[in-house]
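User: I'm putting together a small comparison set for a docking exercise, and I want a reference complex before I start. The sequence is below, and the ligand is adenosine-5'-triphosphate. Could you produce the 3D structure with the ligand included, as structure tokens?
Assistant: Of course. I'll restate your input first, then give the structure tokens for the complex.
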Amino acid sequence: MGDGDLVIRTRGLTKAYGARFAVRGLDLEVPRGCAFGLLGQNGAGKTTTIRLLLGLVRPTAGDALIFGRSIAEERLALLPRIGCMVEGPAFYPYLSARRNLSWLGDIAGGVAAARVDECLARVGLLDRGDDLYRGFSTGMRQRLGIAAALLLDPELVILDEPVSGLDPPAVLVVRRLIRDLVEREGKTVVVSSHLLHEVEVSCDRVAVIDQGRVVAAGEVKALLDPDQAWVDVSTPDPGRAAEVARGVEGVRSVEARPDGIAVGLEAQQAAALNRRLVEAGLEVRALVPRKRSLEELFHELAGTARVEAAELRS
Ligand code: ATP
């Protein structure tokens, strides 16, 4: 992939606070026109990465190029092209949502009232536009932050944990918004999340970050094998059930829990697993498909060949 197609390119991006590395030698390549997930557990370095990308903190080493230009050196020129929501957006409590957005627009040289309303509508807040910000719930504040990030129609949108704290309907609104920005408008969207499923449903590409390093990166499809399934089996004898499950063809991981076992297996083998457990005289109270957790992904990445960061450049 040529550099011209990259909206973000970091090389050895590093941020240390004292002796602690928040981000350690990060090489990221974000192509134009995709939704890119930064996936990692609490403290992995996602927010620090985003702050580095926005030039909010200076790197200890390495650099970040946005649209091919150094964010550290050309921040003022680059910022108008970037919309962001990071670390709880600040709004005036005694202004309405609409006034807050139009005020932000004024600072940037003026934004049409219709654009303000369009942004409110895109996050499902149009009918609350005249309410004071101070009366907004956490989820509404978060959505207004996203609306603010879109206000100036930026080419690159960076959202730190955009769905955390949102209720299920609002999560759907934000997922749809991310896909629309990419698919209909050709924008590039970077989102951080600690939720594997969230990245699965809204992102095209992902970098998995652990302790400030990229441990896997590439296309979401390639990283998250569709032939792999996860089921929770509820049974009164988890120890023996785990033993039996380990002997079933296509079973890749088994974990005993107090009330049953959690199994990772080839998708088409769930029925065989059920049959073998019953044949072994075990009572199967339920066999429920579920989503893979981020912890399980880390486990797999540690145990299997990693999707190398170099794959991004292919
Ligand atoms: P979360 O999901 O909890 O928001 P995160 O992946 O966004 O986590 P960061 O906020 O980037 O993680 O933090 C990464 C590490 O850097 C943590 O160990 C954190 O304590 C440390 N860190 C971040 N900012 C600072 C700071 N200003 N001073 C000292 N340490 C910091």
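The two ends are 6 Å apart (CA to CA). The chain has two domains: 3-223, 228-292.
User: Thanks, that's exactly what I needed.
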